[in-house]
Amino acid sequence: MTASSESEPIIVECPDCERVVLVDEAGRIEELDGVKQAWAWQYVLAQCNECHGPMLLARDWPWDRMERLWPSPQNRELSESIPEPLRREHSEARACLRAKAYTAVAVMVRRTLEGMCADQGVTKRQPLVASLRDLHEAGKIEGRLLEWAEALRVLGNQGAHYTGTQVSREDARDAIALAEALLDYMYVFASQYEKFKARRARPNTP
Length: 206
Description:
It is built from five helices and six strands; from the N terminus they run E-E-E-E-E-E-H-H-H-H-H.
């Protein structure tokens, strides 16, 4: 491992500025591939030239551009364990965020919650609040997750109905992050935990 004093212009998308910017390098560690005489990997601590926000970037050979590791990119791929219609709804919410249509983000996140309830078997024609509570009573979402879902539902109502109050950028970003957490819990982590329990219940499991 070596620390490099070399510096080069780095252009990357800033999550705070929401656009591609030039960043200043504050530090770097990297490893040289002795065979190819090229960088095997690089990690760079950088600062946005516009808002001065910090970022952690990375590049592996033979990539020719830096990837932002932190703050986490909003466009990470959702697990294929999550039903495709829900992934599509959530992808549209992300697209609205990139377009700075924050009210539309709230609406799309609410649609994602409605789709999640329907996929989990709550198909009665009733308000979303009742559907979420049905999931809670069925043991599919726990108390804290119900609180998260309720908060997203309220934000979705704010977006769907004219109240004279705008949905903020911060609320829109948090709504997407919380919706991702709910989807991961429902379709990824819960399934993994059930498999773990079943495996541990087998005889002679160490």
